[in-house]
Amino acid sequence: MRPLRPSPILNAVRRTGSGAQSVSNTAAATASFGKLLQEKHLSERELVAQRAAARRDRIEMEQQLRRRFNHGDVYAPRDLGVAEQRKAKMVKFRPKQDIFDVLQVDPMSQYRNVAIMSEFITSTGRIKGRNETGLRPVNQRKLARAIRRSMGIGLMPRIHKHPEIIAQQLQRRLRM
Fold it and tell me: Record's superkingdom (predicted)?
């Protein structure tokens, strides 16, 4: 919070004396107030320009940094290094809505669809967590059960992604 400053009019009144004032004293106070406003107005312009420049610099620096530091965070110089920035860059996009609710599909009924199921497992065969999939807890449990069922039946490999999915991903990369 900024400290309160006395009003320029009050300062002018205090300088001229307290109590009843003559018309000339009031005019003098108003004239000095106008000068103060003009001086203050110029300094406010400069202040606004300085703040805008500082804001542009801050935004430019924030765009260069991948990781967002919050007020009060403690960090070491290595946190600003290239390796740490690469780690922060690898943060994945998390969906805001449950995809199964949006499409009105039951995850258990999709155990035969290897393409859908493989989107929710890692390349090592682990089922991705809710923080990565963006699913509701109920649908996450149903999806995990469907993936295990698909792996148990033998429709989906346990260790890696399905070869057809890998081929599709490679074709997409080559197109880009």
Answer: Eukaryota
